């Protein structure tokens, strides 16, 4: 297999006037709505899974953001479910995975960090700038510390997006390489079973890590450090 063919799965293709990335994200939203449609007194399987998921994220939201941070609870849960379905469905053959594209993940991360920034300014006004100056630091070091903290603040969005795209892209490339070997070495197909389980775990973990970091960043809209 030509090495360039390994990267064909990441190509953006136009279909019916939309990109495959847009179509996939729209499809995931529809799938999620169908899976979790309706609330019943005796929950079905997917409703039970969703209720367990909500209970867990309720706990970590209170733990990280206190009761005040529950205003972000629905956003965090929805973001997690959306990312998990994007990541897992993207493991299916011939299915495009938008979260392997850094432009998509950076779009998510920068939108969140910009939203956090505006929310912080809305709540704390000019006092929000205090996050760029550690308390108790000597004033003589203020210019250097402010520069470092500003770069660190901006790097949140970059690292948040790159982490998600890099981990998923590596898994998809590994799939493509092993699939190529599988045509020659039949035992490679058995290895792919274990790699598949590993990638499902990575898909869930990366979505969780993304949402957990978002929660940590949202603390700046509730508390001044």
From TrEMBL:
Q: What are the entry keywords?
A: ATP synthesis, CF(0), Hydrogen ion transport, Ion transport, Membrane, Mitochondrion, Transmembrane, Transmembrane helix, Transport
User: What Gene Ontology terms describe where this protein resides (cellular component)?
Assistant: mitochondrial inner membrane; proton-transporting ATP synthase complex
SUPFAM superfamilies from the UniProt entry: F1F0 ATP synthase subunit A
Its membrane topology is listed as: Multi-pass membrane protein
Superkingdom to which the source organism belongs? Eukaryota
What PROSITE patterns does the entry give? ATPASE_A (PS00449)
Under Gene Ontology molecular function, one entry of this record is: proton-transporting ATP synthase activity, rotational mechanism
Report the transmembrane regions from the record.
Answer: 12-36, 70-96, 102-121, 128-148, 160-184, 191-218
HAMAP family named in the record: ATP_synth_a_bact
Q: What is this protein called?
A: ATP synthase subunit a
Originating gene: atp6
């Amino acid at each position: 297999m030509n090495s360039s063919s390994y990267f064909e799965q990441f190509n953006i293709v136009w279909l019916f006037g939309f990109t495959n990335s847009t179509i996939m994200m729209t499809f995931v939203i529809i799938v999620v709505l169908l899976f979790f449609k309706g609330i019943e007194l005796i929950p079905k399987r997917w409703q039970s899974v969703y209720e367990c998921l909500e209970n867990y994220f309720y706990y970590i939201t209170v733990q990280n953001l206190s009761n005040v941070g529950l205003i972000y609870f629905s956003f965090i849960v929805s973001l997690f479910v959306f990312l998990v379905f994007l990541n897992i469905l993207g493991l299916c053959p011939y299915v495009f995975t938008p979260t392997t594209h850094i432009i998509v993940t950076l779009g998510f991360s920068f939108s969140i960090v910009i939203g956090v920034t505006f929310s912080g300014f809305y709540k704390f006004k000019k006092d929000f700038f205090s996050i760029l100056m550690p308390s108790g630091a000597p004033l003589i070091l203020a210019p250097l510390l402010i520069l470092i903290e500003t770069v660190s603040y901006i790097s949140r969005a970059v690292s948040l997006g790159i982490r998600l795209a890099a981990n998923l892209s590596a898994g998809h490339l590994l799939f493509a390489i092993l699939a190529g070997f599988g045509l020659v070495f039949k035992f490679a197909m058995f290895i792919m079973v274990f790699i598949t389980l590993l990638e499902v775990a990575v898909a869930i973990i990366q979505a969780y890590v993304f949402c957990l970091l978002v929660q940590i960043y949202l603390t700046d809209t509730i508390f001044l450090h």
